[in-house]
Amino acid sequence: MQARMKEHQLTADQIVALLDKAPVGHLGTVDEKGFPYVTPVHFVRLGDSIYFHGLARGRKLANLAADPKVCFEVAGEHSYIQADAPCDTNTAYRSVIITGRAATVEALDLKTRA
Predict the structure, then answer these.
(1) Radius of gyration over every alpha carbon of the chain, rounded to an integer in angstroms
(2) pLDDT tens digits for range 14-49
(3) String of b and e for 51-90 (b: at least 16 CB within 10 Å)?
(4) Cα–Cα distance, 97 to 65 (Å, whole number)
(5) CB contact at 8 A, 36 and 30
(6) Are 26 and 38 in contact (CB under 8 A)?
(7) Quick one: which of 104, 23, 37 has its CA closest to 71?
(8) What is this structure's pTM?
(9) What is the dihedral of CA 81, 41, 33, 56, to 10 degrees?
(10) Mean pLDDT (whole number) for 47-70
(11) Taking Cα atoms as reference points, which of 17, 68, 59, 16 lies closest to residue 38?
């Protein structure tokens, strides 16, 4: 974890609020050559799980079939912090980064709820 993130961690309530508000997240997978591949996805949080949908086939699903490990990120509420020196200019934002394993949902009732 980056040093600044350690100093400015979000509370559990702030994490939930950001996940429930963000319209798009970014799903990171690994392709067959070991390269990262990031896809913007629409998603919903249900309990402690993140659900996203997409086409029934494609690079994202091929990557997940080969390796279910993922990284998921959302960001929001940003503004620029101007400084006198260009290298000191920064951005104020909130973000959530989640790592885990993805699985295809087959149960129709869960798909409908999500």
Answers:
(1) 17
(2) 999 999 999 999 999 999 999 999 999 999 999 999
(3) bbeeeeeeebeebbeeeeebebebbeeeeeeeeeeeeeee
(4) 22
(5) yes
(6) yes
(7) 37
(8) 0.82
(9) -170
(10) 92
(11) 59
